[in-house]
């Protein structure tokens, strides 16, 4: 049997002059993998590629889905995952990851991965103008796709052969985190916005908010929790340890905000708080937050999303009676306010309003008005104009609001746009309580 010896690679090549005269020290590269394993290495790397985004075949098609960011229209964007917190300004230092693509190219020409992100001072940096505009339009946790004109990126000449002349490009950008840019020299802890000072004040606000919650003064508790959140977002962090403490306190504050918003029947704001918790990676592993999120989603008629959250909560806490009761309430509410009956009728006309449709609408509105567990109910898409007119008349008759949903808001931020079905993308309207 032939024995195969492992391949060995040197850190640096041999200097023949040194070998023949003074001698040379060999430095072996222990991380080197020879040709026997190179194919397997390539396969393993292929499995762990973590580029942001994917190739874009046609910029012209993509552009129809984007909104203009700057005055001249050189930067256009579409938010894939919404972020949160305060808007950025020149006083921030941000951490970003991104991938850049040319049109119809399968591989990115520029990549910064999330595990090794780029840190940028928004006031003093060498960013291309388009990139600066893009980042300043983002919130923390946001993932967006941008289409850049060559005029705000690499210019008419480009940098051949890597950067083509007059080449527009697409970038997927994720804003990982943002801090207030530290001043030069040591931190002055007497400054009012340092974390050390803010932390103490926020803990006092948190304690007072919990006391108000126990006395059922939810509105006052909300004001204190929100003030604490704003202070933490604006404070100046000295190091990663302070950042970890900040995140833990933000999780407590946002969790209590979700609870209080549900108590005062403000489910949309409760959903916003839960989205912030998802950004802080404290949603899917936290049964309490999932419970509050499901409760809020149920109140606005987002039954499928609510079911997804409450079942996950039940899996994490199988013996929790509150979670079991919420699941039962969700099922009862969905059965009593089943909007799909409006478009499930096989004899439904595309132009006329049938008697059966009118009966379903009247019954749906009656159930909605008498159901104390609902604040809002989204109607299915695809209703014709006559059907919409009848629903408006019925709402006026029953003293209900009937509003158009301006955009397909993602109350569940883990649902990306590519997962939405056609029915969810259609123009939609909603019934709202007049309380």
Give structural notes.
The chain is α+β, with helices and mostly antiparallel strands. It contains 15 helices and 10 strands. Strands 1, 2, 3, 4, 5, 6 and 7 form a 7-stranded antiparallel beta sheet that branches. It has a 3-stranded antiparallel beta sheet with strand order 8-10-9. Strand 1 and strand 2 form a beta hairpin. Helix 9 runs antiparallel to helix 10. Keywords: Coiled coil, Isomerase, Repeat, Rotamase, TPR repeat. It is an enzyme of class 5 (isomerase). This is peptidylprolyl isomerase. Pfam families: FKBP_C. One of its GO terms (molecular function) is peptidyl-prolyl cis-trans isomerase activity.
Radius of gyration using CA atoms only: 28 Å
- Any idea what the shape is? globular
Provide the succession of SSEs. Answer: HHHEEEEEHEEHHHHHHHHHEHEHE
Number of strands: 10
> Roughly how many Å apart are the termini?
86 Å
> How confident is the prediction overall: mean pLDDT?
77
The amount of beta strand, in percent, is 5-15%
User: Low-confidence runs (pLDDT<50, min 5 residues)?
Assistant: 1-11, 28-48, 406-427
What is the number of helical segments per DSSP (H or I, 4+ residues)? Answer: 15
Q: Helical amount among residues, as a percent range? A: 40-55%
SSE class: alpha+beta
* Major β-sheet annotation: 7 strands, antiparallel
């Amino acid at each position: 049997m032939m024995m195969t010896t492992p391949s060995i690679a040197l850190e640096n090549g041999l200097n023949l002059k040194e070998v023949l005269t003074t001698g040379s020290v060999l430095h072996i590269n222990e991380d080197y993998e020879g040709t026997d394993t190179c194919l397997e290495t390539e396969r393993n790397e292929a499995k762990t590629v973590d580029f942001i985004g994917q190739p874009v075949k046609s910029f012209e098609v993509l552009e129809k889905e984007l909104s203009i960011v700057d005055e001249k229209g050189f930067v256009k964007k579409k938010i894939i995952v919404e972020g949160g917190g305060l808007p950025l300004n020149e006083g921030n230092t941000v951490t970003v990851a991104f991938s850049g693509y040319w049109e119809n190219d399968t591989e990115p020409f520029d990549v910064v991965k999330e595990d090794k992100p780029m840190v940028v001072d928004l006031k003093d940096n060498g960013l291309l103008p388009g990139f600066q505009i893009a980042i300043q339009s983002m919130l923390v946790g946001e993932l967006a796709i941008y289409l850049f004109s060559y005029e705000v990126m690499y210019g008419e000449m480009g940098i051949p052969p890597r950067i083509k002349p007059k080449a527009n490009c697409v970038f997927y950008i994720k804003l990982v985190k943002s801090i207030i840019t530290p001043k030069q020299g040591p931190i002055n802890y007497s400054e009012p916005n340092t974390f050390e000072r803010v932390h103490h004040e926020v803990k006092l606000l948190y304690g007072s908010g919990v006391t108000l919650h126990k006395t059922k003064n939810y509105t006052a508790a909300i004001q204190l929790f929100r003030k604490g959140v704003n202070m933490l977002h604006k404070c100046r962090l000295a190091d990663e340890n302070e950042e970890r403490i900040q995140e833990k306190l933000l999780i407590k504050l946002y969790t209590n905000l979700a609870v209080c918003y549900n108590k005062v029947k403000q489910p949309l704001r409760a959903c916003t708080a839960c989205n912030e918790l998802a950004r802080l990676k404290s949603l899917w592993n936290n049964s309490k937050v999932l419970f509050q999120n499901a409760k809020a989603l149920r109140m606005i008629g987002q039954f499928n999303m609510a079911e997804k959250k409450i079942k996950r909560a039940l899996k994490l806490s199988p013996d929790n009676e509150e979670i079991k009761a919420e699941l039962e309430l969700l099922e009862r509410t969905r059965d009593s306010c089943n909007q799909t009956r409006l478009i499930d009728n096989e004899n439904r006309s595309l132009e006329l309003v049938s008697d059966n449709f009118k009966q379903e609408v009247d019954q749906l509105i009656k159930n909605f008005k008498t159901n104390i567990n609902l604040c809002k109910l989204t109607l299915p898409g695809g209703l014709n104009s006559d059907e919409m007119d009848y629903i408006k008349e019925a709402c006026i008759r029953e003293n209900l609001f009937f509003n158009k949903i301006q955009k397909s808001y993602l109350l569940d931020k883990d649902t990306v746009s590519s997962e939405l079905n056609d029915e969810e993308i259609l123009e939609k309207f909603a019934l709202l309580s007049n309380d």
